Amino acid sequence: xxxxxxxxxxxxxxxxxxxxxxxxxxxxxxxxxxxxxxxxxxxxxxxxxxxxxxxxxxxxxxxxxxxxxxxxxxxxxxxxxxxxxxxxxxxxxxxxxxxxxxxxxxxxxxxxxxxxxxxxxxxxxxxxxxxxxxxxxxxxxxxxxxxxxxxxxxxxxxx
Length: 159
Hints:
The chain is an alpha+beta fold. It folds into two domains: 5-97, Homing Intron 3 (I-Ppo) Encoded Endonuclease, Chain A (Alpha-Beta Complex); 106-150, no CATH class. The chain has helices spanning 5-10, 51-60, 88-97, 116-124, 129-139, 143-150, and strands spanning 13-14, 29-30, 41-44, 47-50, 67-70, 83-86. The strands form three sheets. Strands 1-2 form a two-stranded antiparallel ribbon. The chain has a two-stranded antiparallel sheet with strand order 3-4. The termini are far apart.
């Protein structure tokens, strides 16, 4: 890893991306390392940060305190004019406005770590806190997730 963040960042940006909106202009695509969901990442001060956060840092001089959201809905885009900062709630509301939030739940949610079969097994098991922690470790989720499953706050349908 050589060079400044700015040098390394711009060496991984393709300014000839698709123009998904005439009013926004073309996306600037991150060509470096990306996660499965398409978001770029870059090293900064010994940490791994999202490329969108690096774009905001380079453009404004400050790392964003909130999430970096896309006006263009294109995860690898790092064009500062396509980005805005917001909370998780802002992100969810933006997704709903744009028709992206399909409320996929349970196993059909691509980020789900559990299956209905596992959830049913959790609900049949012991419920004391120590057992919840053991199940959480076994299924690689938090104890809070196990607790919410047991209290039917999550994984409510079909279980």
